TrEMBL record, chain A:
It comes from Thermomonospora echinospora. It holds the Pfam family OB_ChsH2_C. This is DUF35 domain-containing protein. Residues 24-59 form the ChsH2 rubredoxin-like zinc ribbon domain. Residues 61-125 form the ChsH2 C-terminal OB-fold domain. InterPro entries: ChsH2_C (IPR002878), ChsH2_Znr (IPR022002), NA-bd_OB-fold (IPR012340), Thioester_dehydratase-like (IPR052513). SUPFAM superfamilies: Nucleic acid-binding proteins.
From TrEMBL, chain B:
SUPFAM superfamilies: Thiolase-like (SSF53901). One of its GO terms (molecular function) is acyltransferase activity, transferring groups other than amino-acyl groups. The keyword Lipoprotein does not apply. The lineage of its organism: Bacteria, Bacillati, Actinomycetota, Actinomycetes, Streptosporangiales. Keywords: Transferase. Pfam families: Thiolase_C_1 (PF22691). This is Acetyl-CoA C-acetyltransferase. Gene3D superfamilies: 3.40.47.10. It comes from Thermomonospora echinospora.
């Protein structure tokens, strides 16, 4: 049987920077929003209250379709703490179609599927209702809808 | 002075012989290595007026160690660049010496990871903490970050697990000549590939050792060096850099070593072809592969072919690298590899490496290190040293 990397990974909840409130409010709704700098006309990652390219604070938090491509990955087979009982699980870099690259776990994925270039979509996971919704990615199962 | 080329000389270098030090305190290990390095230089604690350590030193910055050691300094630093710190500090000490702030600087490292006291989480975490899934709080360790690099390198350039394994094989062949090395058994490519996967494609034997111990360096004004009559290593070039994911732009095909190397070569007025010996950071096998490319010892993507078939073995390979056995086999004290990188470079320049691994007529050596996590945010420092007459 093929190895399967299941959902249900730990979701540690660090303190949230109030500047990133728009991100977390959207995540609560299951939506991925990216901060776009209105001067640079580009999104950036990770979320903060200003653009790290130009320093501008004129941001638009716009909803992303959450589609992306696995840029690289590793199957973690040995880990400590709350992660110890979750091996094997996948750590990846995912390049969103919007152009930013995000470090995240890939879940709901089989060893056969897992590859550089795999198309994935954003999902949010939380182990406890009091945890933050943590951004993760799962392989696309439905045919992709082209954005207009 | 607008350059550090010739500004300072390493006249003392000492690596603690221990790799498991139960019953020792961090302060004791610092004292042992500082005493050892000063004795190597022919100097004493009363001569020291500059002191450099990292944020893991016991107490509040450097002052508690300076009190313990009985030092009186006019220049101190207790910063943090991870394993790259001590290589960078050679440059920082030289800058302080060139500016007249001190004349005899000691750089000290001690670590006791086998005592298993995990470092406390920082009081004020990174502003990225909520978005760093494998951050240093509550994460699952650095191996996965380096595995991301290794996987991408394989995808982009056809690098193989066998080629990565050759980095470990070379280190084990060197360590076999080092009686203090933590691991002295020579291993084969099959041994590496047969060891358990930790974060695939990296196996256990693709990872450095975890050892207690430490080391120290004595960096002095050239006039002081001249008065000592001991062969030393004069600083010819120094460069530092860092690389982050910045705004979400990630390119794993190069590291901050590229920039720190360019700066060090430019200051020294030399290039990779002039280097007789290289100490390259080897937290993992992939770390060495990328460093070879970033520092110009081979073309981008050619690291795998450079290291295979014993490419890094002293005497028979393409470039002698980490002839003490490096962090992969000899020593990685306190999870910080930069100190031992400088120490082995000094041994090579003095002709004091083990005869089986000594580079004949070694004149120019390079030591390079990275700190924190290469697949994520990291520091880099590179120095170029020349044997004094």
């Amino acid at each position: 049987m093929s190895e399967y990397y299941a959902a249900g990974l730990p979701t540690p909840s660090p303190e949230v920077d109030p500047e990133t409130e728009p991100y977390w409010a959207a995540a609560e709704r299951g939506e991925l929003v990216l901060p776009h700098c209105q001067s640079c006309r580009r999104p950036f990652w990770y979320p903060r209250g200003f653009c790290p390219r130009c320093g501008g604070a004129d941001l638009r938090w716009s909803v992303s379709d959450g589609y992306g491509t696995v840029h690289t990955y590793s199957v973690v087979r040995r880990a400590g703490g709350v992660w110890a009982s979750k091996v094997p699980f996948v750590l990846a870099l995912v390049t969103l179609d919007a152009g930013v690259t995000v470090q995240a776990n890939v879940i709901d994925c089989s060893a056969e599927q897992l590859a550089i270039g795999l198309r994935v979509a954003a999902v949010f996971e939380r182990a406890e209702s009091t945890d933050l919704p943590v951004l993760r990615f799962a392989p696309l199962r439905e045919p992709e809808v082209e954005s207009p | 002075m607008r350059s550090l080329n010739g500004a300072a000389v390493i006249v003392g270098a000492y690596e603690h012989p221990g790799r498991r030090l139960p019953g020792r305190t961090l302060a004791q290990v610092h004292r042992e290595v500082v005493t050892g390095a000063l004795a190597d230089a022919g100097l004493g604690p009363e001569d020291v007026d500059g002191f450099f350590c990292d944020s893991s030193a016991p107490g509040y910055g450097a002052i508690d160690l300076m009190q313990y050691l009985g030092l009186r300094c006019t220049y101190t630093e207790s910063g943090e660049m991870g394993g790259a710190s001590y290589i960078a500090y050679v440059g920082h000490a030289a800058a302080a010496i060139a500016a007249g702030k001190c004349r005899v600087a000691v750089i000290s490292l001690a670590g006791l990871p086998s005592h298993r006291r995990p470092p406390a989480p920082p009081e004020t975490p990174s502003p990225a903490v909520a978005f760093q899934v494998n951050g240093y709080q509550g994460g699952y360790g650095p191996v996965a970050d380096y595995a991301l690099l290794a996987r991408r390198h394989m995808h982009d350039f056809g690098t193989t697990p066998e080629q990565l394994a050759w980095v470990k094989v070379a280190s084990s062949r060197h360590a076999a000549h080092n009686p203090n090395a933590f691991l002295t058994d020579v291993v084969t490519v099959d041994d590496v590939l047969g060891s358990p996967l930790i974060a695939d494609p990296l196996h256990r034997l693709d990872c450095c050792v975890v050892t207690d111990g430490g080391g120290a360096l004595v960096v002095v004004h050239p006039d002081v060096a001249a008065s000592l009559g001991r062969t030393g290593a004069v600083l010819r070039g120094h460069g530092e850099s860092h690389k982050t994911s910045f705004a979400g732009e990630v390119d794993l095909t190069y590291s901050a070593n590229r920039r720190s190397g360019e700066l060090a070569y430019a200051e020294a007025g030399v290039g990779p072809a002039d280097i007789d010996y290289a100490s390259l950071y080897d937290s993992f096998t992939i770390t060495v592969l990328l460093a070879l490319e970033d520092l110009g010892f081979c073309e981008r993507g050619e690291g795998g072919r450079f290291v295979e078939d014993g490419g890094l073995v002293s005497g028979s390979g393409r470039l002698a690298v980490n002839t003490d056995g490096g962090g992969l086999s000899n020593n990685h004290p306190g999870n910080r590899g930069g100190m031992t990188k400088v120490i082995e470079a000094v041994r090579q320049l003095r002709g004091e490496a083990h005869p089986a691994v000594q580079v004949p007529g070694c004149r120019l050596a390079l030591a390079s290190g990275t700190g924190f996590r290469l697949g994520a945010n990291h520091y880099s420092s590179t120095i170029i040293l020349e044997r004094t007459a």
